[in-house]
Amino acid sequence: MLPYLLLVLLASTAAERDPRCARYTRGAQARTLPHDTDCTKFYMCDIQGNALEMKCPKNTFFSVDSGICTFDDSACSGGERAPVVKPMLPIINKVPTRPKPDHPVIPPQAPILPMPGLPVLPPQAPILPTPELPVIPPQAPILPMPELPVIPTDPPKDTISGPIFMPYSAPRLVQDSRCSDRSALNSSIMLPAVGDCTKFVVCVGSMAYEKQCPVGQHWSTERNYCDFIDRAKCLA
Questions:
Q1: Which ranges in the chain are annotated with CATH 2.170.140.10?
Q2: Residue 7 — φ and ψ, nearest 5°?
Q3: CATH T-level assignment (fold) for domain 173-231
Q4: Best label site of 39, 68, 183, 223, fewest CB within 10 Å?
């Protein structure tokens, strides 16, 4: 332990002459002497040769070897040692602690079984984004084509085995006494037009409706329908 050097000393009011204290000039180091009966005190010689009684700081003792006060009490070689007063520690009242509650007894639990392994799925092909479809602008409605007249051609005579039915024109109401003067008005009949082989008359009751044969055909009185010209043999 480093020696504790006394910087400030308290001097007693009474100064005694000591033959050990020799006079010295100013600037010389003052001499220190041990106390006769107390190791916590010592004498310091002044410039006049007087011995001034000095007291060491608290809990220190005068060392004859070093001539200063130190913490080492074994350096004291004479006189009574002053009792070292130990500081009293404050008594701290302990706060009574509450007893810890008993922890609930946890019953043994069933062992945790490992999770079954999940099936390993094979890698799948990446899903490509769907390409954007072009936006089709609205179009005008498609109107039905008008029905075109069917123009028959004269097939070879040896290939015709039966009548060929062609579309007829819309009927037109006409005056014909053959329809109004007949007795069987509950039935419908077809008659050749007067003076025109390309037309014929349909009698519905007493009403007469004139119709046009398809292009390239004449009314056939023998077959009672429009037929090709060479087979109809119309003489009107």
A1: 19-70, 173-231
A2: -100, -40
A3: Antimicrobial Protein, Tachycitin; Chain A (2.170.140)
A4: 183
**How many CB atoms are located within 10 Å of the residue 213 CB?**
25
Q: Is the pLDDT of residue 13 over 50?
A: no
Q: In whole angstroms, what is the distance from residue 185 CA to residue 206 CA?
A: 6
Distance between CA atoms of residues 66 and 69, nearest Å: 8
Specify whether the CB–CB gap between 197 and 234 falls below 8 A. Answer: yes
Q: Letter for the amino acid at 183?
A: S
- Token pair for 198: 């390309």
Q: Between 84 and 140, whose confidence is greater?
A: 140
Considering the entire predicted model, what is its pTM?
Answer: 0.31
Tell me the residue length of the chain.
Answer: 236
CATH code of the domain occupying 19-70: 2.170.140.10
Tokens 């023998």 found at: 222
* pLDDT tens, residue by residue, 162-191: 545 556 667 888 888 889 888 888 888 899
